[in-house]
Amino acid sequence: MKLSILQIIKEEIENFYSDWERSNEPSFVDKYYEKYKIRKQSEKQPLINAEIIGYVSDGISGISPSIAIYKNPKNLEGFGTATRGVLLYNNDFYLAQSYQALHWKILELLVKRGIVSSHDAQNYYNEYPKDFIAVERDGHTDIFEPSSAYDKNYFPTYYELIFYNANKKLPFKFRKSNLSEQLDPNNLVSYIPQGYEHNILDEKS
């Protein structure tokens, strides 16, 4: 005999108080709500064309890991405004889906994956590691700039090289902070080291 929805709900209500203390099993309503919530969340999530390497918490509230970190996304569909990422010397790009993922959380994950060293991750804004740059998305554009943790008046030559190569190979734009634009509104100064366009610059210098 098939039970109607009303009968099922009635039984759930009648059994709730007697069974709740003895059992940790979710009720019919709980199960239905969970399925509904999961379905609605999946409907809202756009398809991101990239490999997920892991999840991090937001670094502020300490909520369990829930923000996806992607490797080499093909575009920025599904990524939030002002989201943070880490651009490697070899042009691999690791990007958080939401701005709530702080750089040190992303770097913690990259350390666990053996992608960057622990020392460099802990000191990235003081010692300027040669293997990566922490970057931030400029609003909702496809432009990325150095992290606000860096000194706006200093940008190492090897970081300029990383940006130069990334601009040739990746579908996004990487540029120095707006400070350089304010100092040179007409972009009359080239920030590419002399000789690099002819591949005669020693990258290890």
What characteristics describe this protein?
single chain; 205 residues; alpha+beta; seven-stranded mixed β-sheet; 7 helices; disordered C terminus
Residue share in helix: 25-40%
Give the assembly state of these chains: single chain
SSE string: HHEEEEHHHEEHEH
| Class by alpha and beta content | alpha+beta
Average per-residue pLDDT, rounded, comes to: 76
Shape: globular
Strand order of the largest sheet: 1-2-4-3-5-6-7
Give the CA-CA distance, first to last residue: 81 Å
Mind telling me the C-alpha Rg? 24 Å
Kindly estimate the percentage of residues that lie in beta strands according to DSSP: 15-25%
Largest beta-sheet characterization: 7 strands, mixed
Structural features, described:
The chain is α+β, with helices and mostly antiparallel strands. It has two domains: about 40 residues, no CATH class; about 150 residues, no CATH class. Helix content is about 35%, strand content about 15%. It is built from seven helices and seven strands. It has a seven-stranded mixed sheet. Strand 6, helix 6 and strand 7 form a beta-alpha-beta unit. It is globular and about 70 Å long. The protein starts with a helix and ends in a 22-residue tail after the last helix. The C terminus is likely disordered.
What is this entry, summarized?
The chain is of the alpha+beta class and about 200 residues long. The protein has seven helices and seven strands, in the order H-H-E-E-E-E-H-H-H-E-E-H-E-H.
